[in-house]
Amino acid sequence: MARYDSLLDACGGTPLVGLPRLSPTVPEGAPPVRLWAKLEDRNPTGSIKDRAALFMVRAAEAAGRLRPGDTILEPTSGNTGISLAMVAKLRGYRLVCVMPENVSTERVQMLRMYGAEIIFSTAAGGSNQAVATAKQISAEHPDWVMLYQYGNEANARAHYETTGPELLHDLPTLTHFVAGLGTTGTLMGTGRYLREKVDGIQVVAAEPRYGELVYGLRNIDEGYVPELYDATVLSRRFSVGTRDAVLRTRQLVEVEGIFAGFSTGAILHAALAVAHEAVRDGRRADVAFVVCDGGWKYLSTGAYGGTLADAEDALDGQLWA
Amino acid sequence: MAIEVRIPTILRSYTGGAKVVEGAGDTLGDLLTDLDSRHAGLKARLVTDAGVLHRFVNVYVNDEDVRFLGALDAKLNDGDSITILPAVAGGAFGFAAAAAIAQHSAAARAARGAAVAAR
Q1: Which residues of B touch A183 (CB under 8 A)?
Q2: Residue bearing the bigger pLDDT, A130 or A244
Q3: Which residues of chain B are within 8 Å of residue A216 when distances are taken between CB atoms?
Q4: Among A39, A83, A235, B52, which residue has the fewest nearby CB atoms (within 10 Å)?
C-alpha cells in the first residue's frame, strides 16, 4: 500500500529487507542462516519512535487525559521528542520539550521545525537538571501532560499491535528477533507478540554500553530499570560497546548500503552473534533486527569517518543510542 | 589464566581504584566470593542478603547478561571477561532522569485525581 489519508496513517508498515552480503555463509548442504533488517527509519519522522509516540498520544486521548489544545510536556532531546512533536502538531497539541542547552543543533532545529517549544536547562546539570526543570514547570502547570515513555504501556502495545504482526506477516519463518533495549518498549511489545505466535522464537536484546561518564551515579541504589521491562520476555541480552557499535554501523552502510544510527550498529552486532552461533550449530535461522533510525542526526559526531579509535573517542561520554 | 573483571567507577573504592581486577571461580558466585577475599565488601554491593544479584546491578560474561545464563550459578571459564555495570535506562535521557519522571508522573496523577475529586 502506498497511499494514505495523512502522514499519521503512514506510520509503520516499514520494509523488511534481506542482507545477502552480511548474512554468514554456511557450509555446503547446511540449512540457510539469513539476516533481515526492518527499516524503521522509513517512518514519518525517521525513527521507530513514531510508533510509540502515536500510540501514547492516542491512548491519552482515549483515556480523556488529552483534549484538543492541551499541552504535552516532555523532558527529551531524542527521537521520541521529534516523534511527539510531529504527532502533537497534526493532532492539535502544543509540545514543550525540556532539554540541556548543550544538545546538538540538529536536534534543536528539528524540534523547532516541527513546532515544538524548547525550554533549556543548564548544560552543567545534564539530563537530571532537565528533568528537575520539567518537574518545576509541571508544578506550575498541573494541566500539562507528561506521557513518560519508560512506563507507558501504550509504548509496548504499539509494537505488540504493529511491529510484531508486520514481522510475522513478512517473514513467517522468523527464528530470532533482535532489537535495542532502551525504554524496552520495542522488545516487550514485539517479543510478547512473537512468543505467542512462533514456537521457539528467540527474543534478543542489544543494550548499548556507553563510556564511563554516562554511568556516573553516586550509588548503585540510584540505578534504574524501566517499569515496562519484564525479563521473562527476553531470551538473551547482549551489552555492546561503542567500538563494536561503530564498526557494525559502518559495515552496514559499506556492505549493504543501509545508512543507520549507532544504536542500529549495536543491534546488528548482537544479530551477527546469534547468526554465527546458528551456523556453528548447523541450525536454520532467519534473524530479523531493527534499524532504529538513519545516520543523519549523528553525522556531526564525526564517528562515521576516521579510525575506530577516533570514533570511539568522539562518542565517549555521549548517549549514542 | 584468570578471569578478568571490569569494575564500574562507583565500585572502585573497593578495588583501590583499579578498573580491572582478576579472579577465579567455576561460577559467577564463586568468582565474587574469590574477589571479596581481596576486595572486602564488594560482594555485598552486588548480591543481596537473599542471595540474588542486586536489582540495579548488571553483570555480563563476554558481553552477555548473566541473568540469562544462570545468574550466580552461571558457569565461567578461564579467559572469560566479566563486566559489572549499574543498571541504567538507555535512550536520549538517562537512568536518574527516567526515575525522576516516574516519581513525578505518579505525583501528577495523584494531584489530578485530587483536583477532580475536589470539583
Answers
A1: 89-91
A2: A244
A3: 9-10
A4: B52
